[in-house]
Amino acid sequence: MSVINLGRLEQVDLRDIWQSEAGAFTPWLAEDVNLALLGKTLDIELELEATEKNVGPFRADILCKNLDDSSQHWVLIENQIERTDHTHLGQLMTYAAGLKAATIVWIAREFTDEHRAAIDWLNDITNEEFRFFGIEVKLFRIGESHAAPQFNVVSKPNDWSKAVTGAKKDVGKVGELSPTKQLQLEYWKTLYESLAEIKTNVKPQKPRPQHWTNYSLGRSYFDMHARVNTRDKCIGIVLVTQGEFAYEHFKLLEQDRETIEEELGFKLHWRAIESSKQQQIILNLDHADPTDKDDWGRQHKWIACHVDKLHAVFAPRIKTLDASDCVPEDEMVAGSA
Question: Which of 26, 128, 140, 174 is deepest in the core (most CB within 10 A)?
Answer without folding.
Answer: 26
